[in-house]
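Hi everyone,

Forwarding the result from last night's run.
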Amino acid sequence: MYKYWVMLKTLFISIAIISIVGCSESTKDKEEKKSAALPYKNQSIMLIVPTLHADLIRGPIIEQAKIFEKQTGAKIRIVTPSWDETINKTKESLRDKNLHYDIFVVISMWSGTLLENQSVEPLPDWVKAKIEWSDVLPIYKNSVLSFNNTAYGMPYDGDCINLYYRKDIFENLEIKAKYKKQTGKELDVPKTWQEYKQVAKFFSNWDWDGDGKVEYGNALLRKKGDVAMLQFFATAAAYAKHPDDRAYFFDIDTMKPRIDNPAFIKALQDYIELVEYAPKGVINFAGHDVRNSFVTGEVAMALDWADLGIYAAENEISILKDNQVGYAQIPGSEQVYSAKSKKWEERFNRASSISGSWSFFVNKDSKNKKLAFEFASFMTSKAMTTKYVAISGNAVNPSRYSHFKDYSSWEKSGFTPNAAKRYLDAISKSLTHSNMVYDITLPGAGEYYQALDEFVYKALKGELTPQEALVEVAQKWDRITDKIGRQKQIEYYKASLNQ
């Protein structure tokens, strides 16, 4: 009996040991699986992106960072200073390795600061594969995101400026007859800036929609210190961007500014005249003011990025239905100026304005470069950008072929299939146009834009003539170039044009 009890006790102990060992192994397996599922546990990176109106640009990043952290175990610290502080902190970070940002989210005009002295890392092949680089439109992967034919930026927001108009009003038979009587011409979507001015003038200062309020011809971005200069260059493109010349802002071999040539002076004259056909206070309009003015029925036309289309379809203040909104490319001109021959040429010219795009760049000195690229590719992936391009209020606009193929997400935002097609077709034409202008992407770009902003605003207020203002700008641009180094800027300008 005793032997039997000893044997039984030994058996119980063995079973207990096996159970304990089994539990221990099971716990170990679970920990290993958990560790594998959180590949960046205890690793962190810091990202800088400016605070803009509402949740523009930074909103999706903040939202998705929390999800990424849960999926990977990483810690994403997001710094959101003001517009001016962002570029200053970015420059400071590149000088001081103790103030370190792993990811910079920048508007295209700031990319020159990052590309200077090779401060950011070129895109590895595995990152290109992960974000499906072949799906990115050529204007972005070959121009906006590349420097000296090497890709550095990752496509978050694609931007082009288009024309929006009241389709229902343009098709109204009584209004068409009134326009014909006053101008002797048929009312149609303006194809040139001359036509645009005439249509804007016609619609100004009378109640053309019968709501008992006075309406106006157009709304435009004009606020000093904002990004109004991007819209100025969009206006000027038809006159100043010759289709046979890659350069636009400067002479490519000397960096001599072109900003004071007859084409830009003509553009500034138009830019000022259009204020006369806009709501009072337009001289202080920011982007959201332009959108609000259009979607509340105050103006017949507006110039804006792709944000306005989705804003009109989805925002609660919009009184417009999808069949009331028309979409078109920005107007062209019957003449274009050749900076090389210094002569006007009689030929129709239209140029797309691809400006204001936002991209992710990874700091070449990042201590967690792999994690930085993982998060940047997570945010700029086809799936992520497709999700946000069809949601109003985040300023993420189309940049990929795939963004134009699936209408279902646009329908969820209030578009009918027909309206979504018209909206996307207009954007696609701009993004694939053969003649394009995109932002200054040189070191000191912010200084060039600030100088232009200062003197154009003086012209808008009548303190200087357009010619006087732009001569001042050209002189200041030359001083900026000489301060940075003319030969250095020549090389950067050629590299920014991938030449």
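DSSP finds 20 helices and 15 strands in the chain.

Cheers,
N.
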